[in-house]
Amino acid sequence: MKKFLNILLIAVFLLAILSTTCKANSTNRIELTVTKNEEQKDFELYILLPQDYIEYAISEAGLEIEYSGADTLKQNDIPLIDVDKSKVQDDVYSEAGIEYVQILLEPNSQDVYTFDILADYPALDMKLRAKNDEKDYIMHIDNFKIENNVCKIEYNYDENEIKQPDKTIFSFGTVLLIVILILLIIIGIISKTKTDN
Questions:
Q1: Which of 25, 100, 146, 191 is disulfide-compatible with 93, CB 3.0–4.6 A?
Q2: What is the pTM of this model?
Q3: Number of other residues whose CB lies within 10 A of the CB of residue 8
Q4: Residue 50: beta bridge partners?
Q5: Stretch 26-55: mean pLDDT, rounded?
């Protein structure tokens, strides 16, 4: 029994260490889900990449490419920005003196729009743009949180609102207590079984 308790303590200790270790991933994923498009209106969704982000990706890839708006992505292969060149728009978007290259996004089979960004880029200053004949809505995502390398976003089409999905949050301490409680119940069952035999 004492040997089993020692193994249990070591397992709990290793679990605590592993849960605090950060995994180094090279990209984070932006995932946008559209909600409340009651009339099922068609629109196009773009990711807007700022000039700084594109120049950062060029620098990190060790390339010597001069930034030239949309042509930077259309005419060059930048390994750290994986885009379909046919989805890069000719016209750029400008806001507050910053130029953004627009890339058309297509939804996946679950109707979620995704785009991967470099995890070590220091800002979340890219934007999303929903556009059709009726609207042209720019979504600022710089205050959103990235968890487990994913930035989940919900876009309410009818209200032109974006937010992060609501969720129940359990702290690490709560999860650890639940794991310890389950392990203690298992130990109790094993002890009772051994005592009965």
A1: 100
A2: 0.69
A3: 15
A4: 100
A5: 91
